[in-house]
Specification:
InterPro entries: CAT-like_dom_sf, Plant_Fungal_Acyltransferase. By secondary structure, this protein is of the alpha/beta class. Helices cover 32% and strands 24% of the residues. It folds into two domains: 175 residues, Chloramphenicol acetyltransferase-like domain (Chloramphenicol Acetyltransferase, 2-Layer Sandwich); 230 residues, Chloramphenicol acetyltransferase-like domain (Chloramphenicol Acetyltransferase, 2-Layer Sandwich), CATH 3.30.559. The chain contains 14 helices and 16 strands. It is globular.
Length: 454
Amino acid sequence: MSGTIVDNKESKGGSGKSTIVFCPADNAIFPRAMIHFYFHNPDETPDFMNFAVLKESFYKTLCTSMPLALATDMRQTSTKHGGLTATLSSIPDYPLVTKHVDNEHTVEKMIAKKFSLCSQPPAIVNVPSFANPLAGDPLVTLDIVYMCDGVGFALALSHAIADMPALITVVQEWSQMAKSMFNSNQQVYQSEKLDFDREWFWKSACAFPPGTFVDFDRHMDEVAAIAPGNDSVESEACHPHTSVYRLSISPKSVETLRSTRPDGCKDISVAALITAILWQSHSLANPKSQYTYLGSSITIRSTPEFARFCGNTATMDYLYYESAQLNAMPIADISKAIQARNQSFSVGDFVRCVENYSECAYMERYSNVTDSKHAAKIIVINISRLPSYNVDFGYGAPVKFVYPAKSTPPGFCIILPHNKLGGMDIYANLTSSVIENIASAEFLNGHVEIMKYQ
């Protein structure tokens, strides 16, 4: 094996002035993507953390980067006459931005506990769920918590319209907007009334050509027809034991991997190659599975008209192969299939995903197929090259990107930046046999250090 696997016993962290960013993996396709981040200052809360500045700059950011999140589709019904009397395209103080004060939890204690979920303030952990975004439910929520030694944020977006990469982009733009407003003393922002509502937006979006990637939907229908009913895993024997691992690739190793990519893969990203290795390694470790599924974040290649309302958004979509075919494919071919899908995902595909992920029946059928005892599924979320270290509200850019490894759900892998200089840390909750397959992959030979969390 080319990687060294060791036990990593959680150790206590240090303290001091620093900006800490905490980013959990998406815990489901639906209902939300979320990010938590904290600013640690044991002396005093900086003036630019004023709630009014943060709130108004957040609204202003959404106006320019994701106005769809501000659009309501709220209907007022006359009790006297019945029926529709008015449609509001926007309302003040929407979406909800909530201020909390917590004198019990501290950033200092969270640092010592590696930002485990149980160490965080309830207002941060209990981010509300979302219902159907097509029905006017909130697409975004923001909770701001003031503690005695810092400030915490919990930002969540509806998973039907956005994924973690889009979320981090919004946070980075928001930090720049807040800093600009504070420095210019522009602390009052009048929310602009939007000139569209969601109903109009969805009609316009549906006017784009139908999504090209409908193959997965057809596949689910075919599998359900062959094996109707819920064939999901039931026995304990079908739930192999998994553990959380961290696979670290230094910035220098990433550059080496980039310059030594296999023939025919010079235009394939290192992240796509690693995702391909994760996918095939998972398939090889599940020889009884008929199909192996890969869920990954995909950025929408949108038209300027669409981007005007939805910004730089991303969503989750799926690739699948028969396991025997996937196991025999060269990594280069798997990587090309992953990257080709990313480069071709259209507005029509996005509309299809939103409609599907907003239907309980679709999500139930999806679970029945991908969680079947005849299937293997892995989720890979890559945020290693996003502007995570550019989030600066005025206190400075983050000094550390913290991830509570034990919160990684089984079958999930999240690729984070190793440090400010780049590199990759892959947190994965997988079986030991999958990890052994990854460690022995030729492409990663000598470039990955593997640590197991107890």
